[in-house]
Every structure is written in structure tokens, then in C-alpha cells.
Specification:
five-stranded antiparallel β-sheet, nucleotide-binding, 638 residues, 13 strands
């Protein structure tokens, strides 16, 4: 049933292995180490490699890794318990050898096959389906007894027959019962009056006549007279126009076609904008500056456990005992020790805009990393868990591969071809704006840029790019660049095939010796099937060098859904065996979130790809690179 089972140390020494098939398991295990163990990822679902499912368990006390592999078409319910049993048995048998970590050697005196096979046989037998229980006889069936009992009618059991009637008859019976009750009450009253004597005998003839006249007067008033109503207004009052305090109340205030700012024409206003933008020239040369967060004393305060803060105010022995209670004292950490701290950490991450699913997986990964680890004498559980979580977050944000766009553009130039970057994302996240920022950065570093307007769906998309191209061209006149503009726009209008426009733009850039082609695509929701198919077609046909997903830093759980479905759409509609997926992320609106930087963790964790650019404002120079340690510091700040 199992393809393989291997036990190795975190240093890479294979201590023992079992192989159920002839194929080598080195490739799947190496992929698991790169993807999960080194990246410190954790999840309930097994790791899939081709046709295999892999599960693993860490033993942090002896720094061991237990890995099992089986075919993914099989549903093996006993795998998790089986790994736990193997871990405990292996530790018990070879505890003395494992404690001498320096003496461990490859396959050195670990005769574990008999114990392993016995545990495997026991696990397989326990997972077998149990024999079905015998069916009850017709007489023993409880349903049979209840059905017959409900069908039997006995004399005097009127309640059962009443319940079986329909709702209408029930209502009539209820009404009849109420009428009977009223009649009974009237008869009771009349009997009480009779018992007390005749009422008329106690009243004089004048009083009887007076009461009779009063009765008829009230009755005639109720029938003949109608209650007075307030007079209706002659005409319904219309809705008044709202007058805004800080704005105009006429559409004439929105007409900018004549003049602006005291008779200044739009052309003059554009010249002022260019003069303002010219101050930015020369600031973006070389590598981008990183996003920095200033560390404050709050970060140090956050490391102190909550109970020690509260107890320190009390003073005396109460504060000392509260502080000592959080100390571990040279013992192995258990899941129970970390449970309360991990719960607080998970809540803290969610409050910082990390997706709930990702926060739970991160805390689960930290728990696996620390479970069984022996702590120092004067070390608190809270500080230990926080340190481990901080290291895991930095590891996640560190890119698995370095994306150096300037170097890649130079390599493409040496091959006499343009370097192609495609931007994709949902609606309204700032794709066109950040594309213009990246254009400015590339122009600052001496490259020529061709912008391909492939958003043929949204009205005004081409005009928006044309304005950016006009402003950037005015900053770098063609006279200073040998007669050729540093930035040009390639557009074919609206309603055209985006993949075809991108192909024509790349061919035009190759003929005109442009260094970079930036492809702007239409914003689309991840659930829009036709538009997702069009995006997959554009990428599959043109094969860009870099596919960047543009996402805003304001999203939380939505980031997971967006990235998963974008990657899934690119994989499903690819025309090759190895589909092109998202290569990097552009994180926008980073200046609007303060320290709620959890979206960076969610996006990087889902894709495993780095955050290449960070948008921090609305000007062309507001473009940064990601500083992993600074972001984690802001994320962990209380």
C-alpha cells in the first residue's frame, strides 16, 4: 500500500528507509524538503508530487523527519496515526543513539524493518471496514411498532384523532371550544347574578331609563359619526435639491473645457504638471529603495507576556510569581503549552490582515517546529513562539529566486529581443498606474519602453495610458535620446483581441529596438470565466518573460481566492505541459494600510513567488522593493 517510508535527520543523513516499489523516492522527498520543510509551510492536505501523496512529521527533540509516500488515488485513513506510531517506536528503540547526534552515520545500526512491518500490518488491519451489522427483523423494528401503534384507535382517545385532522378542522374545533368556554363563562356570570338577586330590582325606574338613553346615544354616535381626519395638503411637497457645503450645486462647475485657475488653459496646466514632474528625474536610478518601517519601543513591549504585564503592576510577590509562571524551565514543549499563545498569535495575524486560513497554517507550522524542542531555563513560551513565528514569516517573504529585472533586460538586449512583462489582476487595483511607475523606473535606468494597451474592455483605459505616455515623453524629449522617444504607446482601440495586440506590439518592439514591452491587460474578477480564458490565451500565445499579478494591500481573505483562481485559470487554459503561472506580485496601495501588512504574507504564501514591486503613493517615484524584515517587524508589532 505504501510506496516508501524514510527517516532522516534535519542535517540530511538518511537513518532508515522502506521501499515498496522499485522507483526511486529521492525526487519526491527533495521536492517536499524544498517546498514545505525549508519554507516552513504546513497544511492539512498532503504534498502532491506527480502521482504520489507525501506526508511528513517532525521530531524536534532529536531533529528527525519522518516521510511517507503513497499513490494519491488511494484513500489511506491510517497514515497520520501510523506516522505517530512509527515515530514513538523509533524513538524508544534508538534513544541512546539519537542523543549522540555527532555519532549519527548513514544507515548506521538501525534495524527497524521488523517493527515497521508489524506496525504497518496493525494499522492496515485497524483500517479495514467492519462487517455490517445484522438487520433487525420486522417485529423488532422500532419504526414498525410506532407505525402500528399510531394506526390503532381506542375509544375515548379523542386527542389522537384531533391531532390527525387537518389545520382547518383544528381551527374550527378550537373556535368551537372557545365559544363553549365563553358561553360557560356567561352562564357562570348569569348564575352569579341570580344568586345575588335581581339587578333590576336594585335600580329605580329613572336610573333604568337614564341608562337606556345613554346606551342608545353611544350606539348612534358610533354608527353615524365618523372620526375627524386631519386635512390633506393641497399639493405634495417636492424634494429639495441638496446644497453641498464645500462644493457647487450646478453642473456648470464640472465643465473644465473653457478655462481653469483664473483663465489658464489645459495646455498651460499640463506644462505646470510637467514642470512639477521634472523634479523627479534622476531619483530612480539603480535598484529601488526598500520599504522601511521604523522600529519603536512597542515591539519590545509586545514580547513581554500579558500576565507579566498585569502582575508587574501589583508588585511584591504577586509580580514575581506571575513572571516565573511563564518560564519553561528546561523541559520539552508540548502542544498544550503553546495552545494559548498560538491562539493569541493567530488572532493577532488576522487583525493585521493576514488571511484566516494562512494564519492558521502558519501557527500550525510553528507548533510542529517547536513541539518536543527543549527550551532554556529562563525562556518564556510566549517569546519562544513569537521568535519562531517571526523566523517563519521572514523565510516566507524571502524569495526562492531573485528577480533582477535590470539584469534580465540587459540579457534580453544582448539577444536582440525585447523583455516582455505582462500585468494582470482584478478591477481597480492600480495596474495602469503602477505600470507607468515601472516605466518611469526603467526609463531612468536608460531603457526604452513600449506600452501595449491590451485593455480593450474598459472605457478610458487607452486614454489613461496615452496621458501617462505623454507625460513621460515630455520628461525625456526625443532630442535628448537621439531622435527616438524613450516611451511609446502601442494601441489598436477597443473591442479587439488582446492576445493579437500584444503579439503585434512585441513584433513592433523587436523591429524598433525597444528594450522592454509592458503589456497592460483588462481588470477581471477571478470568477469571470471568459475574461480568465482570454488572459490565459494572451500569456500562452505570447509567452512573456515575466507575469506579474497586481494586488492591493487592503485585501484580506480575498487575496487567497484571487491568486488561487488566477493560477488555476492559467494552468487550465495553457497550451503546454508546463503552464506559465504567476511569476511575481506587485503590491499596491501600501501607503494606506499603516502596519496591517498581512496581505503580503497571504499572497507570498499562496503563490510561493516574491513581491517584486510595492506601490507607496500616487507619483511616479512612489515605487519600492520589499524589505522582508521590516514588514515582519511591522506585522509582529503589538
Amino acid at each position: 500500500m505504501l510506496d516508501f517510508f524514510t527517516i532522516f535527520s534535519k542535517g540530511g543523513i538518511v537513518l532508515w528507509y522502506f521501499q515498496g516499489v522499485s522507483e526511486s523516492f529521492t525526487g519526491p522527498v527533495n521536492a517536499l524538503i524544498r517546498t514545505f520543510i525549508l519554507q516552513e509551510r504546513s497544511g492539512n492536505d498532503p504534498f502532491t508530487y506527480n502521482s504520489l501523496n507525501l506526508k511528513y512529521k517532525l521530531d524536534n527533540e532529536f531533529e528527525l523527519v519522518f516521510v511517507v509516500g503513497f499513490q494519491k488515488i488511494l484513500t489511506l485513513t491510517y497514515v497520520d496515526k501510523f506516522i505517530d506510531d512509527v515515530q514513538l517506536r523509533f524513538r524508544d528503540l534508538y534513544k541512546n543513539q539519537l542523543e549522540q547526534k555527532g555519532a549519527l552515520k548513514l544507515l548506521d545500526n538501525f534495524d527497524f524493518k521488523d517493527d515497521f512491518l508489524r506496525l504497518l500490518q496493525k494499522a492496515e488491519q485497524s483500517s479495514k471496514a467492519r462487517a455490517p451489522t445484522s438487520m433487525k427483523t420486522y417485529e423488532e423494528s422500532k419504526k414498525y411498532q410506532n407505525t402500528v401503534k399510531s394506526m390503532i384507535e381506542t375509544k375515548g382517545s379523542d386527542t389522537g384523532s384531533k391531532k390527525s385532522k387537518n389545520g382547518k378542522k383544528k381551527a374550527s374545533e378550537t373556535g368551537g371550544d372557545s365559544a363553549k368556554a365563553v358561553a360557560q363563562s356567561v352562564s357562570n356570570k348569569s348564575s352569579s347574578h341570580k344568586s345575588g338577586g335581581d339587578v333590576k330590582d336594585t335600580l329605580s325606574a329613572e336610573e333604568i331609563q337614564k341608562n337606556r338613553e345613554e346606551f342608545f346615544r353611544k350606539r348612534n354616535k358610533g354608527v353615524g359619526e365618523k372620526p375627524s381626519k386631519s386635512p390633506k395638503p393641497d399639493k405634495k411637497k417636492g424634494k429639495e435639491n441638496r446644497i453641498w457645503e464645500l462644493g457647487g450645486n450646478s453642473t456648470k462647475d464640472l465643465d473644465y473645457s473653457q478655462s481653469l485657475n483664473g483663465g489658464q488653459s489645459p495646455v498651460d496646466q499640463s506644462k505646470e504638471d510637467v514642470a512639477e514632474l521634472s523634479k523627479l528625474v534622476g531619483r530612480m536610478k539603480g535598484e529601488l529603495r526598500s520599504v522601511d518601517y521604523e522600529s519603536s519601543e512597542d515591539e519590545e513591549v509586545a514580547e513581554v507576556p500579558d500576565h507579566s504585564k498585569a502582575s508587574s503592576k501589583k508588585g511584591g510577590f504577586g509580580g514575581m510569581l506571575g513572571m516565573l509562571k511563564g518560564l519553561v524551565g528546561s523541559k520539552s514543549l508540548t502542544r498544550e503549552d503553546m495552545e494559548s499563545v498560538l491562539e493569541k498569535m493567530c488572532t493577532h495575524l488576522i487583525e493585521k490582515n493576514v488571511a484566516a486560513e494562512i494564519a492558521n497554517q502558519l501557527c500550525e507550522s510553528v507548533a510542529k517546529k517547536l513541539e518536543g524542542k527543549v527550551m532554556g531555563t529562563f525562556t518564556t513560551v510566549s517569546s519562544t513562539v513569537k521568535q519562531a513565528l517571526q523566523e517563519s514569516l521572514v523565510q516566507i517573504l524571502q524569495p526562492k529566486r531573485r528577480v533582477d529585472i535590470l539584469r534580465d533586460v540587459l540579457d534580453a538586449r544582448s539577444q536582440h529581443r525585447p523583455f516582455v512583462i505582462t500585468f494582470c489582476g482584478v478591477n481597480g487595483v492600480g495596474k495602469s498606474t503602477n505600470l507607468a511607475k515601472i516605466s518611469f523606473w526603467l526609463i531612468e535606468n536608460g531603457f526604452s519602453v513600449l506600452i501595449a494597451a491590451c485593455d480593450t474592455f474598459r472605457s478610458g483605459a487607452v486614454e489613461q495610458l496615452r496621458i501617462h505616455q505623454h507625460r513621460l515623453s515630455s520628461l525625456y524629449p526625443s532630442s535628448e535620446t537621439g531622435g527616438q522617444s524613450r516611451v511609446q504607446l502601442y494601441e489598436k482601440g477597443y473591442g479587439k483581441d488582446a492576445a493579437g495586440i500584444a503579439m503585434e506590439a512585441i513584433a513592433y518592439a523587436r523591429n524598433q529596438n525597444f528594450d522592454v514591452v509592458l503589456v497592460d491587460t483588462a481588470g477581471r474578477m477571478q470568477d469571470n470565466g471568459p475574461l480568465m480564458n482570454a488572459l490565459a490565451k494572451l500569456i500562452a500565445v505570447n509567452m512573456p518573460d515575466l507575469v506579474l499579478f497586481v494586488g492591493e494591500a487592503l485585501v484580506g481573505n480575498e487575496a487567497v481566492d484571487q491568486l488561487v483562481k488566477f493560477n488555476q485559470a492559467l494552468a487550465d487554459h495553457s497550451m503546454s505541459d508546463k503552464p506559465r503561472l504567476i511569476d511575481g506580485i506587485v503590491l499596491t496601495k501600501f501607503d494606506a494600510i499603516e502596519d496591517k501588512v498581512g496581505a503580503a504574507i497571504s499572497m507570498t504564501y499562496i503563490t510561493g513567488q516574491p513581491i517584486v514591486f510595492v506601490g507607496t503613493g500616487q507619483t511616479y517615484s512612489d515605487l519600492r522593493s520589499l524589505n522582508a524584515k521590516a514588514v515582519v517587524s511591522a506585522l509582529m508589532k503589538a
